[in-house]
Amino acid sequence: MTEPAATPPDMSAFWMPFTANRQFKSAPRLLASAKGMYYTTHDGRRVLDGTAGLWCVNAGHCRDEIVAAVQAQAAEMDFAPTFQMGHPKAFEAATKIARHTPGDLKHIFLTNSGSEAVDTALKIALAYHRAKGEGQRTRMIGRERGYHGVGFGGISVGGMTLNRKAFSGALLPAVDHLPHTLNLKEAAYSKGQPAWGAHLADELERLVTLHDASTLAAVIVEPVAGSAGVLIPPQGYLQRLRDICDKHGILLIFDEVITGWGRLGAPFAAQYFGVTPDLLTMAKGTNNAAVPMGAVAASAKIHDTIVGGAPGGIELFHGYTYSGHPLAAAATCAAIDLYEREQLFERAARTAPLFERAIHKLRGEPHVIDVRNLGLVGGVELSSRDGAPGTRAYDVFVRCYEKGVLVRYTGDILAFSPPLIIEEAQIEEIFETVAQVLRETA
Question: Which region is the signal sequence (predicted)?
């Protein structure tokens, strides 16, 4: 293990993503090493990870099996192309992924991130309709407050205002959005799926009438919206979307970059909710975030229409230099073996009630206006300070870090998504720390 450095490095060269750079570099929070449920900071403090890194380290940090697999692959072969070539680990990784994907979504297109997986899924949807002779189906439907990465396709179908604002003049033109599903008046402090809100899916029928079904290619939603602050789907909502898409020949895409690989106690949210999409995106937990990796799982119908319907040669003009990178593929194989051997999805399902009880203890604490949860993901919404939205949750985030617990914030919402290996005492520590900090925060 690398010894933590007491002195921060020169930070001027790294332009940090999704970060207030000047603010951070004036008082940096640097993580030097990690193991299991804990990070170690550059000055030697242990920090309990309440966010699985960034929704992604589902099996805990630096698992020996994954480390060994990456080391062995790096020594054997560092890179191999997958354009008109191949290497065994890419095929093995896709096969292991397909063991867990729902229904007949067994054709796996490998990418390097969730953003790339989303743009890939959108392109596959367009290619499918064109292969069917319905090339006029080009319009995509996303959802308000949705997050689908940072590619131009992803931010076009996404619905987070600040992510879209600076680039609004260059987004995809044929896109519309469903309303989001969060309603604090009707469904605050819901445990699991809210009973109210399934009717919001019927807005898709309105968009079908507005644009005509013959122009609509796909609807893309996160089964549970994570980055917007943990928005839980109402009971029956996802099934209603599935039914409307089937009725009008529209593809349904689930963005499972966050919910994939056990977060809800099932391999994917599709299995948890009993709703199978036509395309499913994943990343993050696919290989426990050891090496960048994403993927799209496509149904047999979509794959066979595109690949089988092509006259010959390349069927889909799309891909990435690092699709199926050997190190990423090796980490994927090792991570999935680990998930299976330790039955981490089943463990998450058993742990979810403990997590639910602990997070809902925050109801009644200062500034808390909602608590919501599903599986091992939860959100705590705080009231905003007058004229300074987002600052209260940021202060809670910093103070929790100083007290040895890592949480995540978005706007004035605290988000929690711990590794699936979390113990009951660690769950209690996370939320007891948050409660203490809330009482100390103006």
Answer: none
